[in-house]
Amino acid sequence: MVILELIKGIILGIVEGLTEFAPVSSTGHMILIDDMWLKSTEFLGSESAFTFKVVIQLGSVFAAAWVFRERYFEMLHIGKYKAEPLDGVDQKPKRLNLIHIVVGMIPAGILGLLFDDVIEKYLFSVPTVMIGLFVGAIYMIVADMYSKKVKNPKTVDQITYVQAFIIGLSQAIAMWPGFSRSGSTISTGVLMKMNHKAASDFTFMMAVPVMLGASGLSLVKNIEFIHANQIPFYILGFLAAFIFGLISIKLFLHLISKVKLLPFAIYRIILVIIIAILYFGFGIGHNITGA
Question: What are the transmembrane regions (predicted)?
Answer without folding.
Answer: 50-68, 96-115, 127-147, 159-179, 199-220, 232-253, 265-285
